[in-house]
Amino acid sequence: MTYEATVEFKFDASFTPSAFNPGFYTDDMLPEEHYVITAPAADLNCKQYFRLFEKFMLCVGMTPESIRSGAMSLVFNDCVREEDQRKICKEYELTMDEDLDKKYEQWKERDEQWAKMNAHYEKNFGSEPKVKGEWSSQQEDLIGLQ
Hints:
This protein is an alpha+beta fold. Helices cover 47% and strands 12% of the residues. The chain has a two-stranded antiparallel ribbon with strand order 1-2.
């Protein structure tokens, strides 16, 4: 037994003149538009369906920004449990607003640790000059450049 399925998105638009606008067309306007997007649906996963619907929404004039905003509104709204939102945040490495204070404290701790490590390195090992002009005359004397 075989399973075949297709999904179809269809958009039809036409301009109907009115008494106030009798047949007014511009070069940028089409009097009639028809879009049909068809795809085999037997093996599509959720992300592929979203990609397909994204293409359809682009065809009917949505901007990429509004499409992304609409997709995010499916996850981050009051009807979705916080634990489900946090799973998505973890999957895409996002930080929720409520967690920013904790994240800031982690960054401060990491900066303090880095400063300690850097100070220890400079104290015990010094720093190498990056350009010849940074050599002091004592260092040049030590290696016999003068």
